[in-house]
Amino acid sequence: MVRFESVSLSYRALGARSAAPEVFRDVNFDLPEGSFRWLLGASGSGKTTLLRLMNISLRPTRGAVTVLGSPTASLRRNMLPRLRRQIGVIIQDLHLLPHLSAYDNVALPLRLGGRPERQVRADVIEMLRWMGLSEKLVALPGDLSNGERQRVTIARAVIGRPRLLLADEPTAGLDPTHAERVIHLLRELHRLGSTVIIATHNEAQVDRHPGPALMLSQGSLVEYA
Amino acid sequence: MRMRFFSFRAARFDELGLRRALSDRMVPFLVAAMAFLAALAIAGWLGAAVLTRHWESGAGAILTVQLPNPAQPSATGSESRLVAVQALLAAAPGIDSAETLSDDQVNALLRPWLGADIKNLAIPVPAVIAVHMTPDVNDLTSLAAQLAKAAPGTIVEDQAAWAGRLGTLARSLQACAGLVLLIVTLVTAAVISVATRSGLAARREAILIVYQLGATDSYIARRFATRAAALAYLGGLIGGLCALPVMFLLATLAAPLAAAPSPDAAIDLLPPLLWSLPVILPGATAVIGYLTTQILMRQWLRRLP
Fold first, then answer.
1. How far apart are CA A54 and CA A66, in angstroms?
2. Smallest Cα distance from A72 to chain B, Å
């Protein structure tokens, strides 16, 4: 499902001759289909970057990344969108579209996938209801609180029941009740067969929902059962 | 609280916010100006073509034969010089018709120079034959030689020289109109290109998000191109409609040059293509808008990871 083989990544400054320090060094892991992992690490340890490598919005400097069975290095450009539509992403820089309502933001992945509009409507209304946002269907992101925006982002990521879900600090900014609901939702998605990776630095949360984890520290990755 | 209705129909779904990013003010206005110029250039091109055809098949195809002493015997001696020349013209290839002007017609032609009392003047007046030729006749030398042999002193005046010069002038005008059309097309593409780049800058983040969510290059490019084509179509329609009254005025002014009996007849003389420009121009500007935006967008999207 997701495999990293000797993956290294460094950001080379434009015009710089010397090699930049590596963010990752020889990272190896293999997640089978339907697995669940916490991705742990301090702020700035590279959790988001690792998720971006899995989302194919970054390419490694060295090594091979395989996502959903497709080696990203040899992936043809026209195959990328179909692959991405099977990946749900909750990443901080993947904002909501400010000119679209909460409903339209959540409907976006389904519409891009060509889902019939009647089905889109039923799924989106149900998802937003479950997220406690029934009253906010027509609200623009600018009119929502941070927590509400985060819940809309999560709804958008999970609405298409993705095969792979990458969540970067999904409960950041949420009150404890909604945070728990979100974690339950992601675990439920995993139970239904999706591979789920949740990056967090919130150890208390991991203690409440124990599970296998990947630990990022100083550019290396360690696996905990 | 700012609120809007969410769209249940995907057809109205503007996920990239292009209605605001590609403004419906500047682009149609600029494209309309270009379409207006294009309409004038096409009108000039077609008008010049019509006038060339008219001159070459009209004035350029008329030959004037002046025959001194028409009643005297011809060189062969069996008939008058006039009859001999008429017979030669009737038998010559490429002659459509040969009409000998009556005395009254010749007098009418000479009256401006010789006055109304022309019949009483002791000046020998030559016979004048107006010859209409078919368009395929190029060589008049042999005909002139035959006529001079039968009736020495016969003068053959052909108007092809000045008609040819007018034709060259008209073709130069056509070339200029073609050049203007090319420049207008390039400027239209440039206007669309600037608008697209501006829209790209305004909607960069939205494009990246939609792209990350699995939109294909062709989907994003098509969204932009359809919007640009719609704006360009509107501009082309406005420009084409604005050009109509100007073309009507030009056709009216050109009527005497085309020897049309009235301005209405001059309008009939111009090709139907000219009057269908308000339909053709929007289509053409829409195609330019669509293709320009498609090319730009695909180039830009190719750089994304």
1. 8
2. 11
Please list every residue in chain A whose beta carbon sits closer than 8 Å to the beta carbon of residue B3: 101, 138-140, 143
* B4 to A77: CB separation less than 8 angstroms, yes or no: no
- List pLDDT tens digits, range A139-197: 999 999 888 998 899 999 999 899 999 999 888 878 888 888 889 889 988 998 999 99
Which whole-number Å values give the CA distances from A53 to A72, A85, A86, B25, B79, in the listed order?
9, 16, 15, 42, 107
DSSP state of B119: G
Q: Which residues of B touch A55 (CB under 8 A)?
A: 212
A–B interface: beta-carbon pairs under 8 A: 83
pLDDT digits (tens, 9 = 90+) for A9-54: 887 655 556 666 778 888 899 999 999 999 998 888 888 889 999 9
Check B15 against A140: CB less than 8 A apart.
Answer: no
Distance separating alpha carbons of residues B149 and B146, to the nearest angstrom: 5
CA-to-CA separations, B289 to A116, B177, B185, B193, B229, in angstroms, rounded: 30, 22, 10, 8, 5
State the smallest CA–CA distance between residue B205 and chain A in angstroms: 8
Is the CB of residue A128 less than 8 Å away from at least one CB of chain B?
A: no
* Helix axes B277-301 and B160-202, enclosed angle (nearest 10): 40
The gap from C-alpha B303 to its chain's centroid, in whole angstroms, comes to: 44
Nearest-10 crossing angle of helices B217-254, B160-202: 150
- The residue behind tokens 């011809």 is B74
**Residues A197, A194: Cα–Cα separation, whole Å:** 10
